[in-house]
Structures are given as C-alpha cells and as structure tokens.
C-alpha cells in the first residue's frame, strides 16, 4: 500500500515537474524578445557554453571515431568488407553518435554549470537583487543561457562529427591501411545530405540543445536556495538530460527515418 | 495592544499599509497590519527576530503579496500592479539586502553601474562619474576594481548601498544596514543615510535592531510584534513609553508579551523524562 502511494507520488511529482518545465519554457520564449536588449550577455554565454566546451567535444569526438573505426574494421574484415569502414563510421556518427554523445557531454559540461550558476545566484539573492533593480532575470539570466545552448549544440555537434570522421580516417587509413580514396569515395557516395546531415546532425542537435538547456535553466531557477538544493539540482540536470536525450533520440529517429 | 496609526493625507505618506494580513506556512505573519511611512523621513522598523520585518519590505517592493489588505507606494496599490508597472516602480526604489547580494560576475564598479547600464543610455563618461561619486560617498572609490569575493562583509554592504542609491531613488529600503560595520563605517553610513534624506529628500525605511544607531538617524520608529504595530513614536523616547512591549524589547527581557521560546511541546517529555505526579 505504502509502496503504491510512493510510486504514485513519484509519478505525480515527475508529471508535475514536466508540466512546470513546459510552463517555464513558455515564460522563456516570452522573455526572448526582451532578452535581445542583452545580446552581449547571450554572446558571453555562447562563449562560455560553446567555445569553452570545444576541447572536451573535440577530444571525445576524435576517440569515438577512432574506436568506431577500429571495431568496424575488425568486424568487417571477417566478411571482407573493410572498404565500407568509412561509410559506416560516417553514418553512425552523423545519425546517432554525433548528436547523442555531444548532447550528453554538453549536459555534463555546460548544463551542470548553468544549473549551478543560476542556483547559486538565487541562493545568494542575486536573482532577487536583479528583480528589485527592475531587471527581469528571465530576460537577463535565463533566456541568454537557453539561446546560447540552442545555438551552441549544433555547432558543437558539427565539430564532434568532423573530429569523429578524422579519428576514423586516422585509424582506418593511416594505421590499418584502408585505401584513402576508397574510404572517402564510399563515404561521400553513401552519406545523404538531407537524411544524415540535416535530419541527423542539425535537427537532432537542435532538439537536444533545447532540451538540455531548458532542463539546466529550469533546475537552476527552481533550485532550493541551499547548498544541498543546488547540488541536488545539478545532479538532476545530468540525470534528466541524459534520459531526455536518449528518449527523444528514439522518438526523433522514428519520425525522421 | 495595537497602537492606532493616524490617517495622514497621501501627499505626506509615501507608503501606506492597511489591514495587511499574511499567512506563511500556516503562521500568521501579519494580522491586519496598519503602517504609514511619511515622505522625506527616515522610518525605522524594529521588532523581535521572525516578526516579519524583512517580509514587510518584500511586500513594499512587490516581491510578496499578502492574503488581504493593501500596500500603497506613492499612491499605487503594489499587489495590483502588472509586471511593467511594478518594474517602473522598482526603478524608483533602492533596496539594500542583508547579505549585500552583489553580482559575482562583475567587479565593484560594474556592480554599482549595473542599474545605470540596464535602464539608461548615458555616455560612459557620465556613468563613470556617477559610479565614482557614489563609491566616494561610501568610502570605496579606491575599491572600484575589486571583485566581490575580495571584499569584507562591511565593504560589500557599502558597495550594495552605493548601488542602491545610484539612481537617487524616491525610497530606499535598508534591510539590516548596520550589521558587520566597524564603528567608522557605521558612523559614515549613518551620516550618508541622513545626508541622502536631508539633501535629496529621499524617504528611507530601516529594518534594524541597533537602537543607538536608530536614535541618531531615524525620525520615527515602529515596533512590530505578533503581526501588528505594537508601539511607535520618536526613537529617543520610545523605549520609555512604559508599554510591556517596549519594556521587554528594549530591555532585552526574556519574559514578556513576546515569547522567547518558539512554540514547542513539553520540555521534559522532549528530553525523555516522564512527569510523575507527587
């Protein structure tokens, strides 16, 4: 009986959080025109969540491409199909690994810092101070971070994909000896710009960017103003973002395929 | 015993609170509170901890809304104001936080310049001059380039004060402005509050516990307890008005109309001792 009540509470709370998050998105969208006055703040956040995430995205992209190429080479060599290594690496990265891994890394690197920053601003009355100085925190703090995440994610995903392909080439061609021309020609012949680049890289990463940024700013803005509250909100950003990315990936793949 | 608040005309009253009732977490913080803040005067709000002094300031700025009653600032009922109107009103109100609430992304200069940059398009030279003037007033012009993390508590409070007065507002709300100040800074802040009041006619509301400091700067004192104004008057004489409220509060007595202990169950029972009848 108690377990049933507990489950009901968790379900009710989760649904309530999703509803609150949706309403918060509407408030952010309403604040976006007002946030244009603070365009410089959006650029500053773009630097922070985008440019500052480049290192981790590039390094991880490189290694994902390298390990993918290595694994595929050994599997495909069983069937004598190592020439397809470049094609499979590219499709796997463009359609799935690029957007998903970039989004997961983005949630861990930028999402958590956004949540912690906004949560601490609230805990130290900085948000209240802005409100009392007649500065809308949704327009000055939240919307620029949301927009920066939305813009940065597709760009970071492109960098991740480029580094992944480079890593795949490094292992496949330079190390394992696949013919350079075969690697590139098979890849360019198979990869479809609309299906793989636009649907895979652009749309997915835009959707993931919106979801991760929304969760990060929502968790930060609604975090209890205590150290434990901020810590818990930061953890929730990673957990909720990871689940949302993977669930949304399935839905988007089903619709975009 | 609730002291009646006289009905003064609106031209003389900047903040008028009538019948304010607020319930927070089942506890009645205000119970039909009536209070007037006269224009161009320094008014102090005093009372035991937890009586809602800071909450009262939040009602004046529209951060909180009561369950009943009205809070009029400059003739406008704050709970009824829309976002734009409320922000327009807040541009004319300065607020000094208990914990300073400086923006940690900016240095001292930019913290003070923040409201100017957000609400005006003044040339940089003018912004610089205004900010340096305000920092000079609080004795921290030399600290303009410091980060908030490099400031002591008292210095941060003075920077927050410079930020609160950067617009020369019609009303400044000071939440515990004297906490953490050394005697020199305390004296300077007292002088500054008085100067702002006398030279610019700025209305000031102080929430504080330091009666000696309040005696030097305030024109009028309200003592709040049990959700109501229980005493009011001249700060120099209020302690001697003979009421049990003022006697307990200013005398620092544990016994009196305000219970020292937060409501709790039986003490012996809480300690695990059972009371046995003789």
Automatic annotation (TrEMBL), chain A:
Q: Which domain of life is it from?
A: Bacteria
Q: What's one Pfam family the UniProt record gives for this protein?
A: MlaE
Any single GO molecular-function term of the entry would be:
phospholipid transporter activity
Q: Which InterPro entries match?
A: ABC_MlaE_roteobac, MlaE_Permease, Permease_MalE
Sorted alphabetically, the Gene Ontology cellular component annotations on this record are: ATP-binding cassette (ABC) transporter complex
Query: How does it sit in the bilayer?
Result: Multi-pass membrane protein
Which keywords does this Swiss-Prot/TrEMBL entry list?
Cell inner membrane, Cell membrane, Membrane, Transmembrane, Transmembrane helix, Transport
Transmembrane segments annotated in the record for this chain? 46-68, 75-94, 146-176, 197-218, 238-256
Kindly list the places in or outside the cell where this protein is found, as annotated in its UniProt entry. Cell inner membrane
Its biological function? Part of the ABC transporter complex MlaFEDB, which is involved in a phospholipid transport pathway that maintains lipid asymmetry in the outer membrane by retrograde trafficking of phospholipids from the outer membrane to the inner membrane. Probably responsible for the translocation of the substrate across the membrane.
Q: Which family does it belong to?
A: Belongs to the MlaE permease family.
Quaternary structure, per UniProt, is: The complex is composed of two ATP-binding proteins (MlaF), two transmembrane proteins (MlaE), two cytoplasmic solute-binding proteins (MlaB) and six periplasmic solute-binding proteins (MlaD).
What's the protein name?
Answer: Intermembrane phospholipid transport system permease protein MlaE
TrEMBL record, chain B:
Q: Name one Pfam family in it.
A: ABC_tran
SMART domains cross-referenced by the UniProt entry: AAA
Q: Determine the domain of life of the protein's source.
A: Bacteria
Does this UniProt record's set of keywords contain ATP-binding?
yes
Which Gene Ontology molecular function entries are recorded, alphabetically?
ATP binding; ATP hydrolysis activity
Q: Which UniProt keywords apply?
A: ATP-binding, Nucleotide-binding, Transport
Q: Where is the ABC transporter domain?
A: 15-251
Protein name, entry field: Phospholipid/cholesterol/gamma-HCH transport system ATP-binding protein
Species: Rhodanobacter glycinis
Tell me the lineage of the source organism. Bacteria, Pseudomonadati, Pseudomonadota, Gammaproteobacteria, Lysobacterales
